[in-house]
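Person: Please work through this fold.
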Amino acid sequence: MFESSWSLQHNLTVEGGNDKGRFLAGLGIVNNDGMVKGDKDTYKRFTGQINAEYKFFKWLSVQSNTSIEKYKTKSLGKGYGSFLNAVVSIDPLTPAYIYDPADFGQSVEAQWDNGKNTGHVLLPPAYTEENPVWYGTSKYIEEATGNPLAQRDRSMGYNEGVNVRGSFAANLMPFDFLTITSRLGYRIAQSNGHNYSEPYFLSSMAKSETYSISANTNASLYYQWENFANFNKQFGKHNVGAMAGMSYTKNHWDNTSVSSSDSQMILRAKHAPNFRYIDCLNDNGKAHLSVGNTPGDATELSYFGRLSYSYDDRYFIQANFRADAFDSSKLSEKNRWGYFPSVSAGWTISNEKFFKDNVSTSAVSFLKLRGSWGRNGNVNILSGYKYNATIGLGGYYYFTDETASGDHATEVAKPNGVSNPDLTWETSEQWDAGLDARFLDNRLSLTIDWYRKITKDLLINIKPYPELGFSSQTVNSGEVLNTGFDIELGWRDHVGDFKYSINANFSPLKNEVQKVNSMLPRYSQEGISGFNQKLSSTFEAGHTIWYFRGYQYAGVNTENGRPQYVAKDGSLTDAPVEDDMVDLGSGIPKFTYGVTLNLEWKGFDLTVFGTGASGNKIYNLMMSADRPRVNGLDYYWKNSSRQNEDGSWNFGKYPDMKAVASDWVFFSSTANIFSGSYFKFKQIQLGYTIPQNITKKFLVSNLRLSVSLDDYFTITSYPGADPETSSFDNGASRGWDNGNYPTSKKLVFGLNVTF
């Protein structure tokens, strides 16, 4: 199912210039074949870049940056029913392919119908009547993912597109202390996607009875026009700066989707790849055609300013203020504007006379204290007039006592959601204090930052009362605290020709919900919809945001072999109730860290870079009570209690897994939650730069060869695929692992040539 593959990346850059201007032009190609056998998970990209800067006069200069990108992707998706989910869940006794109908899995023989294939049994590309071959399916269980090779081969979709992005800027300098800038940044994007699927049968659960085709075209134009003036003037030891400006942003999109599906054939030609397009629909396909198109616009207007002052390169102070507003699709007129001030100050102690007179620079080379306070806002999740529900047409209803019939049905209009006129900005207020220091002739460096961030009026989507008839409503609810440190320590030195440096960073974090809406003291929701576990992601004061709420597993009761749990009163029970549910941790790490090592010697260089996280939890969904016989993590069975031939027991971490395989309580407890801590070597690279006295003979100014192992080694106790990519997303699904695509290991060969 998996194999090593090539990922090619080539870049060519040309640059030059003189005292009037400079230019840079580049081309790049990426061809990544993915790690799944075949061509179903590929990424291809071509990029071009042109940057230019020209100074017409001493008081006028212009810059231009433009890039173009063309790409095409194929992917196998993630989560329940995906290829990766099937890789884990298929039972180990089922072969990849079978060659005899006698080896059909459950229910397949009836669908095959002696070769008539009336049930659309999915066939491999290699199938012929002379040499029949089928996908292996389980003889022992019926499950919803089927053979992973079949899930791979039936994937027929792809996406491709073109992006053009760049900026144009003009700088007017009427005085040496004043620069007036006008800058236009833009992004033009066009993409399209095609997908086609047919009825198939792998099992009574892994099947589809419809033909389906879809196509979409997406076009968008984004631009940001900024105009601002910068003032900077030196008065002896005093330096005064000021900036004022405005920004206007607009994002326009026009997306069209077309689809058709039915249980009968919808194409008028064969299903070969060159016929899987909307133009090839037959009359039946046209009769079930569905089209969608709703262009849209989003705009933002901002005003901002800054004042700064410094004295003798010792004392620094800066004040900022910005006002932001979005169009009416996000907030009502009374709440549209957000106002966000900030202030910062710094003191370079090492530049003070008393410090210079008493402390050697060989001991303390640099020392600075910093502090800041500020506010910012967020309305990213808002769209579609959630503060004032729109009205939509939909559905036919009968308002008479007459017998229901189409003649008496009336099309109705109804709200599209629950309005919330009090919606406002989600705002964050943050305090920071920092220390920058260098010691021993700048060889030892230390940076410490402390922060305390309070986010108020948090914007979240909740499920309103079912009587309202809507599945979601957006509200401002709660106050969340994030506080912690960012510490970075570095050392660099050399011994003769040998140069070395090492840098390490460490960032502990405390996250806590401090306040919630009084009408919603505890709000729980499924981390991933469609699963029936009792465990949920929960938003509640006094806890980490979206913590896992479930049962605390307490091991095996050695008297009866059953699992036991901690009850609310602290006692042990084998029949916990909802009141016994507690905080089981969350997907947010308690700290993150990283290490970078650089070594150089006579043209050789070695870089080792790694990052890690600790304290986060992962809830693994590859085992669940509604699929007790599906293959999953072998961790459970390796740690299962086992009964000896004489009737005695060898008790493990878990009870006999056969007894709890369909136990919802067990799989909604810490028995199914794992440590997500890990350390990953992101890159180990060895390079060699050939001496210039050799390369110049071939008109080459620099020639470097390198080989690296990227994402190759991970230290973790997590039994799943990859703790780094295990989260379904960063919201309420953080820490929920549903078979997400892992980071692939890469062996990278590099060649860098400069002429």
Summary: The two ends are 43 Å apart (CA to CA). The longest strand covers residues 211-235.
